[in-house]
Amino acid sequence: MCKPMEKQQETNQRTQPETGAEQFNGTQDYVADEELMASVNIAIALKKPLLIKGEPGTGKTMLAEAVAKALGKRLIIWNIKSTTKAQEGLYVYDTIQRLYDGQFGEEGVSDIARYIKLGKLGEAFDSEEQVVLLIDEIDKADLEFPNDLLWELDQMEFYINETKRTVKAKHRPIVIITSNAEKELPDAFLRRCIFHYIDFPAPELMEEIVRVHFPNVEDNLLKNAMEVFYNIRAIRDIRKKPSTSELIDWVNALQIGGIPADQIRKKLPFVGVVVKKDEDLELVRHDGNL
Question: What is the dihedral of CA 114, 133, 180, 29, to 10 degrees?
Answer without folding.
Answer: -130
